[in-house]
Each structure stands twice: as structure tokens, then as C-alpha cells.
Structure to design on (1237 residues):
């Protein structure tokens, strides 16, 4: 029994409780210490668990308590169980590893913030919830983490709550995510009525009992869960919250809105890959939505001026890559890209944070320029991250993105792969537009008032620690292409081996064998490399010409494509459409219900009855004449009526 | 312990407090408060014995006290509890001392009368939860009505008399219908069996059962209580309880009552009295008239769904903080009826869990509104801003209960609402499934109205903080706030935004000054954070909602036998049989 696995989520939870309750008084400027320690311990314990998985090849799990007792809930049984297989391993190492680096960085970045303890409390709570999300061995425990990270995202986006815009962004993030949760919840309802359980694995689990279930219901479940994934991973119509989420402190953007939480949707679908494979229509929808998001977000990224917003749209776009890889059935490439992206995007955000920090909270790239001299380490590491994002040959991003595109082509979607390459070109362009605008050329700020400076080691060391895997991770785990260590490691998850459900095994083994039979041909692999290399270099070159040397005028381009520019700049008007079609009408409806239905109609009747009663009483009062003979007449008449009614109706009614 | 009439003790202990206060007319205000608090705390502690002595796993009534009270008509003094009653009794005895403690400084006139009313209210509510005789129940049910109406009408705010009368008449109309139904049921039972009884166990054919009665030609409840008859009396009972819940469209007394009631009144109303409605449906409507319950269930499911969505939508534009919470109650309580009339174990557990969760969370929200009202003398949401800066502890606890109310997993609200929805979706009826799907939309709406409320009152910049010499305000220290706000907002079209300041003024407080006069201006940023007494009322509720959110099993286990017995007419005893495994 691995009865120590609970330490992984418990450590950050303890750090949260400690910092929240005592942080204001006791540790003060040391509020980061409990969080640091908790993260380090969680990382080490995660590593031990992963080593165990590596040694035995079998998943490990531990049941903590029965959250929903089936005996009391008509068979709805939800144990709070932690489960670690090869896929979970990748996630927990990313969360605790990158999380640890970001915790260190935060001590520098947030050093002067009066809410220092609060920040670390929230950050630790986030890590707890994120770990629960990936560790849960059933959909409801996953949902626990799913909502928990939503809460922390809300808390941290709205961290500087005195800013109106931060409050707006936090609220928007939570509500938009709740739209996704609506789908997720209905998906769980359908899952339970279809399978009688919400557990992933085991002989009674969902994935072992897919055979014989109607494709219609599986498609419905797949699509509903995807609605949830769209919320968390900011895909399709639910992208709108992520760019606004940049209101949060930059380490939050790095950890939550780049490296971990936003990948939850991708993780969930890969976790449920067996279900999605049995629902091809759902997968096709995933592919289309992912591809569209990938493309649209990249176009918006081309024209942003806020350094963090460039990164935000880039994140949406890169998540689009992962999602359409899932849609194409290229699950391992999706996780591979999730992993490399976690490193280089965390790096890019932290680097951007370092720039913002050094520029006294300036985020507008138009007010920067020439910073490479004053911030050499930030510059070097940011370039490393940018190369990886741009898919520069041999960097981590190059291999993982290439695998997605080759894999998508190979799974039968060459058009999608071509769109993916176009986006790769745009990615390289906007990434280096950011680099050239920020670090090259002449300073565009007032040197009298702004004195850019390099950040302290507590911030630059994590940058360096992240730069190395951003450059090298692809070579280490990604070669040979489509068959590197990452494939060997994750293979068992998709082969149904490693202690996964036996019944699923036969089905999945057949699938795996089929995949084995036609490995991507050499021409596709080599052609993919060539295309990725060329487009990446072309994008960087164009950025150099426009923003490095100025040989091509950006203004002229903007004027020439004014319509497109406006479309991109206004984020394809998605926010405005929502405001006009959903938010405003609901607001009006709510007011109508309140003023007209509630206060007008229902209370109108209630008060009307009251007035009527009052009025009738006023009239009836006049009957009280005080003349006895009048009363006698009334009594006699009343008696006749009552007896009459009783004789006519009473006996029958009572006998019935 | 068997021979001690523990239920009577719990029921009448508060009455003892009333007598004490009566007997000592010279007692000062503080002594009165301490007496009431002490008595209600003792009542709470004694009620915990019910949990300790509860025989888990049996549906039989426990701690029974049963003797003839009015021999002529067969009214019995019959008390008894099962898991369902125990949970609600303990919730009542918990919330009463918290309400009294919360009123410590806010109630400063007619202090004696106020505490007498509170304790009378407690006796009435507990009595209703433990009564197994219909007339006895009716007496306690009405008894609770009077002190509540007085609490609203005497200690309420400006429009209190209207609210109190509305509350009283609404509820009275319902309970008079119920009285007629009680008499009719009594009459029917007497006609068939020749026995004069108002005992729930007998009338609901639980003991003696229909088989034991052995009436010629009558083998089903539908023959014992003919369908036509059932429809009428069920409707009468149901309307009485639906008004209490309150269900759409008979909910309009609630916003007025809540808004006008003093804090303690709101807490008791939301935390306990609304539960009388759900409890009544479970305890009386289902066992007495199962066939009618099945007949009306589709309509009730539709009304519940409307209540859930409608309550949430109407909560959205409310300018009054308390009224917003009141409408959210309508929405939450919709889950209770939704769960009950889905007729399965999970949905029923969810429904009762929602009652419990609502008792904790909404009670806490009303406490929080009350505390701020005591400081600001206004409940207008627009009058507040940036409480996170000026009252950080208050704002943190408010945030926690905001999420409890939204139904965040790890808190009781989620456990209740999720199981009610999941249970309704598991029902074989397509209508129930549809109701569950539509009701799930509330996860979006509840987040919207609660977070928007939180944003308006707790976020944003609290004016005057910079000027405050002692200020630990964020503005003075936060380097990020020094950035040009115009630039900050330039790229950020704030959508999901409704509080655009009125044209011509960008300072909402300017408008406030006009309506509320200048006198509360100096207090604006100097409101003290929650004090220890206030904290002591909030922390237990928060702890309970989190503990049972993580680990709800003890409550489920407490409820299971009772709910299985209630379900027996609907699932052929399947749930009850599963218990015997």
C-alpha cells in the first residue's frame, strides 16, 4: 500500500492553512517559507511516487475516505481516491516542479506587497486543488479539484481587489468557467446513469465498460465534458476569460494561466481518451474547435501591445494545438506539448514579470525598447523561451509542436496540420515581435523617470532553471521523433497496460497494434521537420524586418489591412457579441421578472386580495345594524342554506 | 435514559427561559441576554444527546413520548424523532444561541420581549419538528408563527409592519388550509376504522399498517384515502408547506420578511423556519397521501425548476443586500422540493442536505448582512465599497460563505445541490431529467449574482484610505496601484459589468451622500472589523459547512433509515430493503 501518497496534496493544503491563519502575524516577511517547504516536500514525494510507477510499471493509488457513501445514496459511491499512473506522473511533476520554481520567484516579485501572506496562501491552495484535479481517480474528485482551481484562479486574478479591472476579470473568469462546469456536471449525470459509476478504472470503472454502450450517449458525454474543457482550457466560445485573467500578478499568470490550470481540459480529455475514441463525432468537434481557437487566438496575438496579453493569446493558441491534437487522436503529442509548453510559457511569463518589475509596472511594449542592455539575464532567458515557443529547430517547442502536426496529418487531417503550420508561422512572428519591441531598438520610455534594472537572483534563478528544459527537453524526451522516451513512458496509459482495466485492455491493445502497424512514414516526419523549421525561421525573419530593423513599416501594414487589423485588435468582437446577446438580455430579463412578475403580478394579486378584503369589510360593516330582527332573518336564511347544501352535496361527498 | 422525556425537555427548556425572564422583571438588559443565551446553549447541549443516543440504522421513531392528551377527539401527546427530525432539531438549537449572540448590541429596546419571543420561537419550532400528532404539530407550527411575526413587526426596519402582516397572513392562509385537511383526514380514518386518532403513525398507515387493519375491500392507500380526496387534502397540506419553503409563486412574503426582519429574525427564518416547509412535505405529505404526491410530482418538479432559476435571476438586479440573499434563498430552497419529488434515495438525501447547508450558509450570510447593517445603517449595496480593505476579516468570511452559497465542492452546499440534481437526473421520468438539466443552469447564475455582490461591496477602492494616517490600506503601499488607472483599463473592456456609475458622476458615493445624509460619512472607512462576539457566531457555521462538505457521510448515515422509510411507498421499499443488507 502506498499510504503516503496523501502527503502530495496535503502539504500545500497545510501551507495554505498556516499562511491564511497565522501568516499575517507570525511569519510576516517569511510567509513564503511554509509554502516553499510544502512545495519542496510535495515535489519530493511526487518524485518518489513516480519512481515507484517507473520501477513497477503499475499505477499506485490510495483511498482516503468515502466522500459520497454509495450505501446512503442509492449506489452513488464516490471514494476520495488518489491515483497515479504515467499520465498523472507527468502532471504532478509539472505542478510541483514548476510550481516550486514559481513559488521561489514570487518571493522576489511580490516582496513589497502588503498582502504577501495572502498571496502565498492562495498560491498554496491552488497547488492543492490542482493536485487533487489530476490525482483524482473519478470524475467527481476531479471536479472537486476542477472547482478548487477555479476558486483560486478567482482569488488570484482578483488579488489586487482594489482595482476595478481585477475584480471584473476575476468574476468573468469564474462565471465563464461555470458555463463550462454546467456541461461538465450534465456530463457526469449522463456518465453515472450510463455506467453506474464515476470511477475511471477498475473492472467496474467507466473505461473498462465502454463496450456495448451506444455511440449516441458516448458522443453526448464526450461533448458535454468538452464544454467543461472549453471553460478551463479557454477554447472556442469560452476563451474570453483568459486574456482578462492577466490582471492577476504575473507569477499567477505563469503558474495558473499558462503551465497548469488551463491545461486541465486537455488532461481531462486525454484521461478519458478511451471514451473519446469510442465517440468519433465528439473528437471531430474537439478537433475543429481546437483548430479554430488555435488560429483565431494567434491572429489576435499579432496585434497586442501589452506584453502579458501577447502571452495570454499565445497560451490560448498553444492550448488550441493541444486540443486539436486530442481531437485528431494524437494524445501523446498533446501531453508532450502540454509538458514543453508548461516550461517555456512559465518562463515567458516569469520573464515578462521580470521586465514589468524592472520597468516599474509598465506592461505596454510601446513604452519599452532596448532593454537587453539593462536586463541581460532576463533577455537571454526570454529569448530561450521565445525560441521554444516559436518552434525554433531543436528547442523543446519545436519537437512537441512538430509531433502534433505530423500526428494530426497522419491521423487523417492534413488540412488541420496545414492550418497548424500557418499558426506556427504567426507564432514565431508575434513572439519575436515581442522580443524586438521589448529588448531591441531605442528606448521609448522617459529615461529621466524610468530606470530599468535587472531583477534580483531570487527571480532570475528560476528563469535560468526554466530556460534549460525549454531548450533541451525536446532533445531529451522527444527523440527519435514519434517514438522518444515520452512515448515509451506514456505508452502504457494508452495500451491499457500498467494495471489498467482488463476489459479495456483488449480494445486498446488492438488500437495500439493498429497504430504500431502504420507509424508515420519517413517522408512525413522529415517533411514536417522541414516545414516547421522553415516557417519558424520565416516568422522570426519577418518580425526582424518589421520590428528589428524597421525595414517594413508596421504602421503601413496596419493601414493596408485595416479591416483585418480592426478585427484582430477587437478580439473578433467576441466580448461585444456576448455583451449584446447574453449579458444584456439576461439583465433585462432579470429586471422584468423582478419588477413586473414578482413585484407587479404576484404581489399585485396578494395586495389586491388584501385590498379587496379590506373593501368588503368596509361594506360588510354596514350589515352590523344592531337591529335584532335583521340578525334573526340572517340566521334563519343561513340555516336554510347550510342545511340545503349539506343535503344536496354533503352525504355524497363524505361517502365517496 | 429511556425514562427521561428528553424531547419534552429540549422542547420546553426555552420556555423555562421565558418564565425566568418573566419572573424577574427587574433583570437588566444584559442579564436578560445572558439568561437567554445560557438557556439556549443548554438546550443545544441537551439536544446533542439525541445524536449520541440515536440508534443508527433504524427507521423507527426514537425517544418516543406517547400518551392521550384530549381523549374526546383522540389527540395524543406523541413526540418522537428519527434522523431527519434530529438533524433539524440540532440545527435549530444551534442557530438560536447564535442568533441571540448576534443581536447582543443591535437589539436595544424591548430587550426582554425580544428574548421572550426568540425563546418562544425556539420552543415552537422544536415542538413542530418532534411532534407526531397532527394537532400537536399544528399547535407548535402556529406557535412558531406568532413570535416570528412579532420579531419582524416590532424589531424590524422601516417597512416592518407591512412585512409582518404579509408574513403572518400568507402563512396563516396556508396553515388554515392544513387544518381543514387534518380534520378531513381524521374524519376519513374514523369513518373507515372507527378509531379517533390524529396520530401520524396511524393515519399514515405505518402502525397499524393497512394489512393489520384488515378492512374488507381496502388493500391500497388509494382505496383507504380515495384519489379525489387525496388530491384535495394533499393540495391543502402542500400549499401550507409550499408557502413556508417558500416555493414559486407563493414566495413573495419572503423578500419582505427577510428585508425587514432584524438579523436574528432573518437567521431563524432562513435557517430554521423555511425548513418547516420541506420537513412538513417529507413528514406529512409523502406518507399520508403517496398517490397524490405521485400525481402532483410533475407539476411540483416544474415549479421547483422555475423557483431555482427565477430566484437566481431575480436576485441579480436587487439593490438591497438582504433582499438579494432572500431571493437566493428561493433559488436554493427550490432544490429541496426538486429533490423530494424525484422520489429516490439520492435526491432525497440531497434535498435534506440542501436544507442543512442552507441553514448554515444563508444563516451566515444574514448574520454578515446584519453586522454590516449595524455599522452602516443601510443595506443598499451601492453604499458599500472596498470592504476587503477596511474590514479584511469580515470580507474574508463573507467571501468564504459566498462560495459556500455558490456551491463550491468541499462545502455543504455542493453536497446537497449536487445530490439533489444527480438524484433528479437518475429518476426514470424524462421530465425529472429535464428539470435537473435546466436547474443545473443555476451554477452559472448563482456565481453571477453572488460574485457581483461581492465585487460591489468588498472589492474596489475604499475612499479615504490614502488619507488615513494609520492606513494599512492597499493603496498607500501597493506599487501596482500607482500605475495610471487609465492605462490599466485601456485594453480591458470590462464586460460582465453592471455598475457603470450614473452618467455625469463617477463617484457612487456622491449619490449616496444625497440619499443618506452626511452623518454617516465620517464612519465610512472607520467601521471596525468583526469583533470577537461576531466572529464567534460565524466561525462555527463556517467550520461545519467545511467539515460536512468534505465528509458528509455522518449526516447521510443519520438520515438514511428515515428517508428509506419515507420512500417506501414510492420505490416499493427498495431503499429500506437495501438497509437490511
Amino acid at each position: 500500500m502506498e499510504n503516503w501518497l496523501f502527503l502530495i496534496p496535503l502539504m500545500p493544503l497545510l501551507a495554505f492553512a498556516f499562511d491564511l491563519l497565522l501568516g499575517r502575524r507570525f511569519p510576516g516577511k517569511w510567509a513564503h517559507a511554509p509554502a516553499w517547504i510544502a512545495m519542496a516536500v510535495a515535489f519530493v514525494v511526487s518524485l518518489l511516487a513516480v519512481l515507484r510507477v517507473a520501477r513497477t510499471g503499475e499505477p499506485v493509488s490510495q483511498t482516503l475516505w468515502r466522500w459520497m457513501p454509495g450505501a446512503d445514496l442509492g449506489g452513488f459511491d464516490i471514494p476520495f481516491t488518489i491515483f497515479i499512473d504515467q499520465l498523472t506522473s507527468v502532471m504532478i511533476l509539472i505542478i510541483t516542479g514548476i510550481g516550486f520554481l514559481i513559488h521561489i520567484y514570487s518571493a522576489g516579485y511580490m516582496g513589497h506587497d502588503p498582502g504577501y501572506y495572502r498571496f502565498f496562501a492562495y498560491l498554496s491552495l491552488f497547488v492543492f486543488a490542482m493536485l487533487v484535479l489530476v490525482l483524482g481517480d473519478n470524475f467527481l474528485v476531479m471536479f472537486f479539484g476542477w472547482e478548487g482551481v477555479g476558486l483560486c484562479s478567482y482569488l488570484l486574478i482578483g488579488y489586487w481587489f482594489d482595482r476595478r479591472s481585477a475584480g471584473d476579470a476575476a468574476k468573468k473568469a469564474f462565471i465563464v468557467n461555470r458555463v463550462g462546469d454546467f456541461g461538465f456536471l450534465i456530463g457526469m449525470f449522463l456518465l453515472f446513469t450510463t455506467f453506474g459509476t464515476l470511477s475511471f478504472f477498475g473492472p467496474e470503472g467507466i473505461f473498462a465498460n465502454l463496450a456495448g454502450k451506444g455511440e449516441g450517449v458516448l458522443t453526448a458525454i464526450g461533448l458535454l465534458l468538452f464544454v467543461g474543457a472549453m471553460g478551463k482550457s479557454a477554447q472556442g466560445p469560452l476563451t474570453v476569460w483568459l486574456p482578462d485573467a492577466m490582471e492577476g500578478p504575473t507569477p499567477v499568470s505563469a503558474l495558473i494561466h499558462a503551465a497548469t490550470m488551463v491545461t486541465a481540459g486537455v488532461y481531462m480529455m486525454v484521461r478519458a481518451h478511451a471514451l473519446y475514441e469510442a465517440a468519433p463525432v465528439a473528437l471531430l468537434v474537439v478537433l475543429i474547435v481546437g483548430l479554430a481557437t488555435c488560429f483565431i487566438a494567434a491572429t489576435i496575438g499579432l496585434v497586442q501591445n501589452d506584453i502579458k496579453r501577447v502571452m495570454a493569446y499565445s497560451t490560448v493558441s498553444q492550448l488550441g494545438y493541444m486540443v486539436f491534437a486530442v481531437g485528431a487522436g494524437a494524445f501523446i503529442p498533446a501531453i508532450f506539448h502540454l509538458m514543453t509548453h508548461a516550461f517555456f510559457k512559465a518562463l515567458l511569463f516569469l520573464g515578462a514579470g521580470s521586465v514589468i518589475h524592472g520597468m516599474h509596472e509598465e506592461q505596454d511594449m510601446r513604452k519599452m525598447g532596448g532593454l537587453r542592455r539593462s536586463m541581460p539575464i532576463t533577455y537571454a532567458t526570454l529569448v530561450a523561451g521565445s525560441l521554444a515557443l516559436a518552434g525554433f529547430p531543436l528547442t523543446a517547442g519545436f519537437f512537441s509542436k512538430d509531433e502534433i502536426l505530423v500526428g494530426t496529418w497522419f491521423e487523417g487531417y492534413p488540412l488541420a496540420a496545414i492550418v497548424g503550420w500557418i499558426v506556427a508561422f504567426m507564432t514565431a512572428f508575434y513572439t519575436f515581435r515581442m522580443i524586438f519591441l521589448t529588448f531591441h531598438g531605442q528606448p521609448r520610455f522617459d529615461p529621466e523617470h524610468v530606470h530599468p534594472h535587472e531583477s534580483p537572483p531570487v527571480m532570475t534563478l528560476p528563469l535560468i532553471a526554466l530556460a534549460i528544459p525549454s531548450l533541451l527537453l525536446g532533445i531529451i524526451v522527444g527523440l527519435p521523433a514519434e517514438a522518444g522516451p515520452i512515448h515509451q513512458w506514456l505508452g502504457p496509459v494508452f495500451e491499457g497496460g500498467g494495471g489498467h482495466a482488463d476489459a479495456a485492455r483488449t480494445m486498446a491493445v488492438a488500437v495500439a497494434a493498429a497504430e504500431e502497424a502504420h507509424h508515420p512514414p519517413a517522408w512525413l516526419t522529415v517533411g514536417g521537420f522541414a516545414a516547421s523549421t522553415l516557417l519558424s525561421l520565416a516568422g522570426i525573419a519577418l518580425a526582424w524586418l518589421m520590428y528589428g530593423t524597421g525595414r517594413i513599416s508596421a504602421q503601413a501594414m496596419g493601414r493596408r489591412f485595416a479591416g483585418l487589423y480592426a478585427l484582430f485588435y477587437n478580439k473578433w468582437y467576441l466580448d461585444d457579441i456576448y455583451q449584446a446577446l447574453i449579458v444584456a438580455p439576461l439583465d433585462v430579463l432579470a429586471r422584468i421578472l423582478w419588477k413586473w412578475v414578482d413585484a407587479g403580478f404576484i404581489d399585485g394579486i396578494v395586495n389586491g386580495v388584501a385590498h379587496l378584503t379590506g373593501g368588503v369589510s368596509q361594506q360588510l360593516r354596514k350589515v352590523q345594524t344592531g337591529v335584532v330582527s335583521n340578525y334573526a332573518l340572517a340566521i334563519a336564511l343561513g340555516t336554510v342554506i347550510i342545511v340545503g347544501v349539506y343535503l344536496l352535496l354533503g352525504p355524497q361527498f363524505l361517502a365517496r | 435514559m429511556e425514562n427521561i422525556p428528553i424531547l419534552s425537555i429540549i422542547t420546553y427548556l426555552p420556555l423555562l427561559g421565558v418564565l425566568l425572564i418573566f419572573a424577574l422583571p427587574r433583570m437588566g438588559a444584559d442579564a436578560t441576554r445572558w439568561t437567554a443565551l445560557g438557556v439556549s446553549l443548554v438546550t443545544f447541549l441537551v439536544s446533542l444527546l439525541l445524536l449520541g443516543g440515536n440508534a443508527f440504522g433504524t427507521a423507527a421513531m426514537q425517544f418516543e413520548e406517547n400518551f392521550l392528551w384530549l381523549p374526546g377527539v383522540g389527540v395524543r401527546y406523541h413526540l418522537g424523532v428519527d434522523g431527519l427530525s434530529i438533524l433539524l432539531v440540532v440545527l435549530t438549537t444551534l442557530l438560536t444561541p447564535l442568533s441571540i449572540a448576534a443581536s447582543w448590541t443591535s437589539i436595544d429596546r424591548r430587550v426582554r420581549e425580544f428574548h421572550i419571543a426568540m425563546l418562544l420561537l425556539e420552543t415552537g419550532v422544536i415542538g413542530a419538528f418532534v411532534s407526531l400528532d397532527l394537532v400537536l404539530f399544528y399547535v407548535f407550527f402556529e406557535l412558531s408563527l406568532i413570535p416570528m411575526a412579532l420579531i419582524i413587526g416590532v424589531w424590524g426596519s422601516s417597512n416592518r409592519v407591512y412585512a409582518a402582516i404579509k408574513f403572518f397572513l400568507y402563512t396563516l392562509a396556508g396553515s388554515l388550509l392544513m387544518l381543514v385537511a387534518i380534520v378531513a383526514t381524521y374524519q376519513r380514518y374514523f369513518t373507515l376504522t372507527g378509531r379517533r386518532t390524529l396520530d401520524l403513525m396511524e393515519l399514515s398507515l405505518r402502525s397499524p399498517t393497512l394489512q393489520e387493519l384488515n378492512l374488507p375491500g381496502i388493500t391500497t392507500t388509494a382505496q383507504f384515502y380515495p384519489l379525489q380526496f387525496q388530491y384535495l387534502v394533499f393540495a391543502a397540506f402542500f400549499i401550507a408547506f409550499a408557502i413556508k419553503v417558500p416555493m414559486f409563486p407563493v414566495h413573495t412574503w419572503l423578500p419582505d420578511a427577510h428585508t425587514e426582519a432584524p438579523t436574528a429574525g432573518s437567521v431563524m427564518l432562513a435557517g430554521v423556519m423555511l425548513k418547516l416547509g420541506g420537513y412538513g412535505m417529507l413528514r406529512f405529505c409523502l406518507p399520508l397521501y403517496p398517490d397524490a404526491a405521485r400525481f402532483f410530482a410533475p407539476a411540483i418538479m416544474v415549479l421547483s425548476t422555475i423557483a431555482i432559476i427565477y430566484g437566481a435571476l431575480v436576485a441579480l438586479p436587487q439593490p438591497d443586500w438582504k433582499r438579494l440573499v432572500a431571493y437566493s434563498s428561493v433559488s436554493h430552497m427550490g432544490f429541496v422540493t426538486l429533490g423530494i419529488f424525484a422520489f429516490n434515495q439520492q435526491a432525497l438525501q440531497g434535498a435534506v442536505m440542501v436544507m442543512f447547508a442552507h441553514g448554515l450558509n444563508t444563516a451566515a450570510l444574514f448574520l454578515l448582512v446584519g453586522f454590516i447593517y449595524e455599522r452602516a445603517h443601510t443595506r443598499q449595496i451601492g453604499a458599500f465599497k472596498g470592504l476587503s480593505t477596511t474590514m479584511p476579516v469580515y470580507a474574508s468570511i463573507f467571501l468564504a460563505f459566498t462560495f459556500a452559497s455558490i456551491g463550491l465542492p468541499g462545502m455543504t452546499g455542493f453536497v446537497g445541490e449536487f445530490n439533489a440534481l444527480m438524484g433528479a437526473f437518475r429518476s426514470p421520468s424524462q421530465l425529472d431529467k429535464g428539470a435537473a438539466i435546466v436547474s443545473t443552469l443555476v451554477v452559472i447564475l448563482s456565481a453571477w449574482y453572488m460574485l457581483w455582490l461581492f465585487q460591489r461591496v468588498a472589492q474596489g477602492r475604499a475612499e479615504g484610505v490614502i488619507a488615513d494616517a494609520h492606513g494599512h490600506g492597499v493603496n498607500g503601499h501597493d506599487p501596482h496601484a500607482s500605475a495610471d488607472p487609465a492605462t490599466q483599463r485601456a485594453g480591458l473592456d470590462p464586460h460582465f459589468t453592471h455598475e457603470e456609475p450614473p452618467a455625469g458622476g463617477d463617484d457612487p458615493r456622491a449619490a449616496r451622500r444625497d440619499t443618506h445624509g452626511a452623518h454617516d460619512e465620517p464612519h465610512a472607512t472607520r467601521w471596525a472589523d468583526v469583533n470577537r462576539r461576531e466572529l464567534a457566531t460565524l466561525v462555527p457555521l463556517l467550520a461545519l459547512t467545511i467539515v460536512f462538505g468534505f465528509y458528509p457521510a455522518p449526516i447521510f448515515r443519520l438520515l438514511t433509515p428515515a428517508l428509506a422509510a419515507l420512500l417506501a411507498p414510492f420505490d416499493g421499499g427498495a431503499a429500506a430493503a437495501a438497509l437490511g443488507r
Notes: The radius of gyration of chain A is 31 Å. Residues 253 and 566 of chain A are 26 Å apart (CA to CA). Confidence is low (pLDDT under 50) at residues 497-505 of chain A. The beta strands of chain A are 60-68, 78-84.
